Fold this sequence. Notes:
The protein contains 24 helices and 12 strands. The protein is an alpha+beta fold and 595 residues long. The chain has 2 domains: 19-51 and 115-434, no CATH class; 453-589, no CATH class. A 4-stranded mixed beta sheet has the order 7-10-12-11. A two-stranded antiparallel ribbon has the order 1-6. A two-stranded antiparallel sheet has the order 2-3. It starts with 21 loop residues before the first helix and ends in a 6-residue tail after the last strand.
Amino acid sequence: MRVLESAPEEATPQPAGRRRAPWVWDAIAGVVYPALAVLVMSRLWADPDGRVLRANEDDHGFFLFVLAHAERAVFHGENPFFTDRLNFPDGINMMANTSILALGVPVSPITHWLGPGVSLALLLTIGLGGTAAAWYWVLGRHFVRTRSAAFAGGLWAGFAPAMISHANGHINFTVLILVPFLFWRVAVLREPGRSVRNGVILGLLITAQVFVNEEILLFVALACAIFTICWVLMHRADFTSYAIPGIKGLAVAAGTSGVLLAYPLFQQFLGRQHYRGLPFEPDVYVTDLASYLVYARQSIAGDTALAESLSVSATEDNSFFGLPLVVLLVVCAVLTWRIRAMRAVVITGLVFVIIGSGPTLVVGGTDTGVPMPLFFVSHLPLINLITTTRFTMVVVWACAFLLAVAADRVPARDRAPRRALIWWVAVAVALIPVAPKPLVTAPATPMPELITSGRWREFVPEGRSLVPVPPPEVTVGREGMRMAAFSALDAPVPRGYFMGPTNGETDPTGTWNAPARRTSDILYEIVRSGRAPVVTPADRSAALADLKYWRAGALVLGERHPQAAPLRATVTDLLGREPRLVGGAWVWEVSDLPV
């Protein structure tokens, strides 16, 4: 059964003509998709432990920690939904963060034996190639007749600028393998007599996607809801026959996923260290409407300066289709407009162009002040947890359907060679400039042998924490995040880069930082300024109080840290004791301090 049914006037099959055997396109996809994925991630594969993705070092470090956490859940039996191995002693609500347990758990043996750096590079590579392959499989078997059309759709879905952009450290937005399967299983809910079977399958897919990325699942749900409304308005005569099995299947899916997710979601929204909202307003990260007409910085035709002027971040280039592709998509819409389901796909994509634009319309870097639909709903629960520009991911998916179905309607080469040639030349002209370049990496500050060899255990007794200098934090404590991950989280580490409440007791507003402490603030300022401050008696008293709160066993500063000299001098002054140089790191032993 083809999910996207033809309009009545097109129901008569057309002669297929001479086409490549399906296995040929299967082989092409099996070579091209993985090769492109490896090419994009090639610079990280050169040294997975020693290099970082330059556009997003913070999330690179965060996901190293997440993968180390999954390894501990498997090999040490620790709670997968909460950990105090980072942000010690308060801990982190892992369900309220992007813990990617559905990915981290399967690769935990790799993390255990080869380290989190290899697992991270592997998942990003699998994410790009696997997402393309998943779309190819679903499109080719359930939405279009020709594998060449499915190949074009899969190529776009797996390697669109949004995917390459998020591959700069966002594993949760790169491994989107389940997305086409979710669309397919929602579409077949209308099948009569299979409500239980279809509902259970969909419920299991929903459950799995929750443990990859809930934000993506919400996008899929919203896209399906808008598509369904459009589709029903165009199929009113068939609504009754489809509605009953569809509603039954949806109820079964909700029940299945609800039972499986009840406890994890309880922990996420009501458990220890839960939070509400994001630490920024919805108009901060929006999609500039003009960005659809130019190329992303990671595309081969991209202009970095122009892309930066129209983008909020190198990891959020979610549009950037380029003018030729926009023109081709308009042609695709015309070619497929007679198919009612495709009209619904086009409308859904346009709706998300509008939603992704944010509360007010931004064009060419200028906020026009024109209110957009999101202005009226951005405060609603769940919606207020979304980075607005990421709604544009749905536009990417709509375009994958549009490209594939339009390509499926192009006559075979032996029946209309000129039209077929024009079509595929147009596709090449539109897609080649968007093709990705290898992601840029940079050398990370080398991990001290003290950490990689496990010698730190000599200085951190059981029940005490390992305190990196400076403690891990977004933008200023990246070495600390890597130190925690590459020590396999064997010792608890204070603070960190994660999402949690501003203050767990009084203010549940979401933030990226642990509550401020004087000692960490002093060390962060040294990283920013490169200068050692004048240490006061009050600073020394605060340092002792902070170390007591963190139950510190030892403070560790890599001797190759860019600000090692002022950090070393300041910590020595704060503690009134000299460090030892051990295994490439300065160590201050403080396990004798009372806690």
